[in-house]
Amino acid sequence: QQQVKQSPQSLIVQKGGISIINCAYENTAFDYFPWYQQFPGKGPALLIAIRPDVSEKKEGRFTISFNKSAKQFSLHIMDSQPGDSATYFCAAKETGNQFYFGTGTSLTVIP
Amino acid sequence: DAGITQSPRHKVTETGTPVTLRCHQTENHRYMYWYRQDPGHGLRLIHYSYGVKDTDKGEVSDGYSVSRSKTEDFLLTLESATSSQTSVYFCASNSESNQPQHFGDGTRLSIL
Q1: Which of residues 31-50 of B touch A (CB under 8 A)?
Q2: CA angle, corner B60, sides to B72 and A46, nearest 5?
Q3: Per the CB < 8 Å rule, is A103 touching B92?
Q4: Domains in chain B: how many in total?
Q5: Structural domain boundaries, residue B45
Q6: pLDDT tens for residues B1-59?
Q7: pLDDT tens digit string along A54-91?
Q8: B109 inside domain
Q9: CB B76 within 8 A of CB B20
Q10: With an 8 Å Cβ cutoff, is A1 touching chain B?
């Protein structure tokens, strides 16, 4: 059973456009929500993260929006660039040690 | 990066053979993790360690064992490899459980 549901599976965006990736969860014990970026042949790298007491966090062109009541969170990439083409994973951690990852979104930004 | 090295980076082996993957970190992180990455499943936790000789199971631990005899090394062993264990394996570490995990670049394992 997938603890964190991620959509879409793949996304194609024009350069300069906005990329939006969504994740949903059911476990109310989750207390930390990171997003990871992964390039081919590399391990995932932390992009941005949020905790449930905050509704939005912005770092440069990357923004996490968090809706605690709906149990949903999303990643917005503003002014998307070809260099942003990668696979993105959302994740959630419950109190303790275990992280649960979404199934990933393959983003392609067309020049 | 957190200085995590995985070895080997690629391995091809036959069904029924034992396989050991190694993860080495230079950050003195307390926590270490082994994941497998498969299309349509994302990353799934196999085992993790919260200190030397302290390990616990993740959501897909069947057929795998781990050992951690030193802070910097975390070994993943497939006692008798099966084709269903063909995957890309990632090691990760963090200093505290509520901190971001840092990942290695993975081991691509093919079991024929």
Answers
A1: 31, 33, 35, 40-45, 48, 50
A2: 55
A3: no
A4: 1
A5: 4-103
A6: 559 999 999 999 999 999 999 999 999 999 999 999 998 888 999 999 999 999 999 98
A7: 999 999 999 999 999 999 999 999 999 999 999 999 99
A8: no
A9: yes
A10: no
Min Cα separation A66/chain B (Å): 18
Contact A102 B103 (CB under 8 A): no
The radius of gyration computed from the CA coordinates of chain B, to the nearest angstrom, equals 13
Instruction: Write out chain A residues lying below 8 Å of B35, CB-based.
Output: 101
What backbone torsions phi and psi does residue B84 show, to the nearest 5 degrees? -70, -10
Q: Check whether B69 has a pLDDT greater than 80.
A: yes
> From CA B17, how far away is CA B80, in angstroms rounded?
5
**Is CATH 3.30.110.30 what the domain over A4-110 is classified as, yes or no?**
no
